[in-house]
Design brief:
Number of helices: 10
Number of strands: 0
Radius of gyration: 16 Å
Strand content: under 5%
Distance between the termini: 19 Å
């Protein structure tokens, strides 16, 4: 991460609202989150963008969180043709068929209990670590889980925003 304005941040700051909205939607599917970040442009530094993201995430309602989660595929089943979800879930790419089957079963049980996909910042995690996390979190209350999801989404958003503002070209 950087502590100054990057070419990617400068481009984001000066891009048309419609283009910036599309870029933000690719980071996070919550329209409330994206609108908040859009209205605060321009950002002097990457840290300011991250702080705005964190503040917007903290204010999301349960419906806003549901909208954000709808943009994430289940762990172990990245969206076909989506390099972002494939990259973020790479810890499952080399998983055994048994682990993939167990993860599918756990994902379904989690979804039955909470009404949404199991969401975790999967970047850098192994398949086993993700399996262990869903096993641990399935015992949470819906309220506990909503706040964990909020935290995990915040981590994912920071990683994705960093990629957005570090890219040298559009």
């Amino acid at each position: 991460m950087t502590s100054s304005t990057t070419p990617g941040l400068a481009r984001f700051n000066t891009s048309a609202d419609s283009d910036a909205r599309v870029a933000l939607h690719e980071v996070c599917a919550s329209s409330a989150w994206g609108s908040r970040l859009l209205t605060q442009r321009p950002y002097a530094a990457v840290e300011d963008l991250f702080a705005a993201s964190d503040a917007a995430m903290a204010e999301l309602t349960a419906d806003d969180l549901a909208e954000a989660m709808a943009g994430h595929p289940p762990i172990g089943r990245p969206k076909p043709g989506d390099p972002t979800s494939s990259r973020e879930q790479s810890g499952m790419a080399g998983a055994s068929e048994d682990l993939k089957a167990e993860m599918l079963e756990l994902n379904l049980a989690y979804q039955d209990k909470f009404g949404h996909v199991f969401l975790i910042c999967a970047t850098g995690r192994t398949g086993e670590q993700m399996r262990d996390a869903v096993k641990e979190r399935i015992g949470n209350s819906p309220e506990q889980e909503r706040e964990i999801v909020r935290t995990e989404l915040g981590k994912i958003n920071r990683i994705r925003l960093n990629r957005l503002v570090e890219e040298a070209t559009a």
